[in-house]
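Problem 12. The chain below contains 292 residues. Write out its predicted structure in token notation.
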Amino acid sequence: MEGSHARWEPGGMSATVEMPSGKGSTDENFPVGSWLIRRDLRPAVHAFYRFARQADDIADNPDLRAEEKIRRLDRMGAVLDGAPGEDAPSAKAMRQSLIATGVTAQHCHDVLRAFRMDATKLRYRDWDDLMEYCRYSASPVGRQLLDLHGESRDTWPPNDALCSALQVLNHLQDCVADHRLLDRVYLPTEDLARCGASIEDLTRASATPGLRRLLDYLLDRIAELVRRARDLPPLVKSPGLRREAAVIVNLAERLTAHLRQGDPLATRVKLSKWDFAAALAVGLYRGGRRAA
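Solution.
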């Protein structure tokens, strides 16, 4: 294996297959298991986040070959399904959480599917291709939270819109680093060409006119997703989750606006502490009532 990491061998479970990057919930564009979530459910929320974070770190590790990433992700899936061993602690904890809460393991397997795609798929053809990726990388995160609270699956369509919007916003924030470190480009290649841009534009110090046109086009598509996501909070029964959903919708609105004005090639466009505070106030107000 590349680097200094020990190789996992079947039957020899001493080394962990997980490779923490040091990133945590404070690095996200949305709150993870905040005080708005029911206290008894917060451990399950954090267990899912740690599981997804560890899988993401494997997929994004530049020192691992694609086949090694997939082996490690497959091992996490096996432990999630009950295989013995201590080499995937977040998967083992996730399995225990699923047993305790009765939530399906499908959402966990869906995100593993997305991270396997990250290991091998470096380009996306068009918006629909990107949305298919988000179906597995993003939507299961919200679905897990909704299922944990016993919410109706009527909430899934606006949830999927919100999670996909957040995912693509993150792709725009990280487009330079993803290309430089992983040769991974989520910007759809057909739309790049249509806007008069190219992947090579990501190596520049600032966005070219063509790349700016592409960013604005993608932000228009994201704004439509966020518009659909506004239907989510009124559908949520749990008061705390309803307010948290409203907060996250507002954070997506704010980050979309920042990326309209900012240049992710020149600097990382991100939310400020003020954005989080203002979104909390707006979310508490908007999330105060349920749909009739």
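Discussion. Residues 193 and 210 are 9 Å apart (CA to CA). Students who got a different answer should revisit the alignment rule from Section 12.3.
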